Amino acid sequence: MANVVVVGAQWGDEGKGKIVDWLSERADVIARFQGGHNAGHTLVIDGKVFKLNALPSGVVRGGKLSVIGNGVVLDPWHLVKEIDSIRVQGVEITPETLMIAENTPLILPIHGELDRAREEAASKGAKIGTTGRGIGPAYEDKVGRRSVRVADLADDATLVARVDRALLHHDALRRGLGLEPVDRDGLLASLREIAPEILKYAGPVWKVLNEKRRSGKRILFEGAQGALLDIDFGTYPYVTSSNVIAGQAATGTGMGPGAIDFVLGIVKAYTTRVGEGPFPTELHDEDGQRLGERGREFGTVTGRKRRCGWFDAVLVRQTCVTSGVNGISLTKLDVLDGFETIRICTGYELDGAVLDHLPIAAEQQARCTPIYEEMEGWTESTEGARSWNDLPGAAVKYVRRIEELIGCPVALLSTSPEREDTILVTDPFVD
Ligand code: IMP
């Protein structure tokens, strides 16, 4: 049986939600393995719109097990609110349909406060442009060995010890930033209150997932953000604080690397990013504005306008390698309908040399000038196409050129937000 990892191959917002939903119908288990409620997945099912941040997309489909893996950082209060809002929409979430890894670190209110205080204090150029949801500080506490984890909620003495250990660090930091010391008793009281709401879903995810795999169940690993926001391989320091690339699906759930059979990279037919940081093909002209308007490029979590630019084959070629992508799902091709000419970045020029990859140094990344190849656009609409024959010749050429330049085939082509508007070339779940 095949297990599939879905990862964003650019800076996030590639349209993973629709593809994950499409694939989750054929999976038995859907697992999140990194990130937190900085992610925003919008699903449209039978005309109903579901907005998810922390919950795996599988929760809205009956008969599946949804899993939050240890690679995630979890805000328990946000999760309970999200569960409530899904319940109001008629979807019941129970310990039979949701499991949270016992070793998942929690995001506490102090993490969000620290995240926002740092961003406010940073000068222009030093800001990361985070979602302000405490993701970075929560991961810092994880590697600093001072997290409160899900399992700690079960024992009061442990909980008190964990909170005190975290506050020793946080109160010192807060003093430096001019923030009040943490209200320790208030924090403990709200953790004790939320504990039963979380503990009822807690379990040994690593064990259950491996058992599911052995019994032939199909697992879909649902990535959040995009590979260029990866803490190691992204545009550091303008990145998120987790590993986003596909290898994290293993460490973020407790599966061995051999459990991954197919990596599907989600790739938008142009490029966008939110937040600060280098973006070689960014457009500041009418074309950029048109991409943003046609693509409705506004962040689902923060509502921020996304920066837009031409397709950058250098970046996607690189992320296909670091994530071991077997096939891509190309999304939002229809946004390019009506452009007279379309440009694709095939390399960079830096200090008189031509580069075929993005250099790792931030200072060099910022100075890379894209080398473009021009392609003829198309006037016909590609929206809703369900076969290659429905696509204009110039659009097919564009897709084929992308495959060639990134060195990876198209497995799926998505031509509108509707789930049926998908051209299937390779089924990632083939046995
Ligand atoms: P953080 O993850 O909130 O720490 O934000 C760090 C960077 O990642 C910022 O540039 C955010 O805009 C970006 N980011 C975080 N989550 C997402 C996402 O789901 N889509 C796109 N960008 C994201």
TrEMBL record:
Its main location: cytoplasm. Substrate binds at T300, V301, T302, G303, R304, K305, R306. IMP binds at D13, E14, G15, K16, N38, A39, G40, H41, T131, R145, Q225, T240, R304. It comes from the Bacteria. Pfam families: Adenylsucc_synt. Its cofactor is Mg(2+). Its EC number is 6.3.4.4. Gene3D superfamilies: Adenylosuccinate Synthetase, subunit A, domain 1 (3.40.440.10), Adenylosuccinate Synthetase, subunit A, domain 2 (1.10.300.10), Adenylosuccinate Synthetase, subunit A, domain 3 (3.90.170.10). The keyword Flavoprotein does not apply. Mg(2+) binds at D13, G40. PROSITE patterns: ADENYLOSUCCIN_SYN_1, ADENYLOSUCCIN_SYN_2. Keywords: Cytoplasm, GTP-binding, Ligase, Magnesium, Metal-binding, Nucleotide-binding, Purine biosynthesis. InterPro entries: Adenylosuccin_syn_GTP-bd, Adenylosuccin_syn_Lys_AS, Adenylosuccinate_synth_dom1, Adenylosuccinate_synth_dom2, Adenylosuccinate_synth_dom3, Adenylosuccinate_synthetase, P-loop_NTPase. GO terms for molecular function: adenylosuccinate synthase activity; GTP binding; magnesium ion binding. It catalyses: IMP + L-aspartate + GTP = N(6)-(1,2-dicarboxyethyl)-AMP + GDP + phosphate + 2 H(+). GO terms for cellular component: cytoplasm. Binds 1 Mg(2+) ion per subunit. Pathway: Purine metabolism; AMP biosynthesis via de novo pathway; AMP from IMP: step 1/2. It is found in: Cytoplasm. Homodimer. Belongs to the adenylosuccinate synthetase family. PANTHER family: ADENYLOSUCCINATE SYNTHETASE. This is Adenylosuccinate synthetase. It comes from Salipiger marinus.
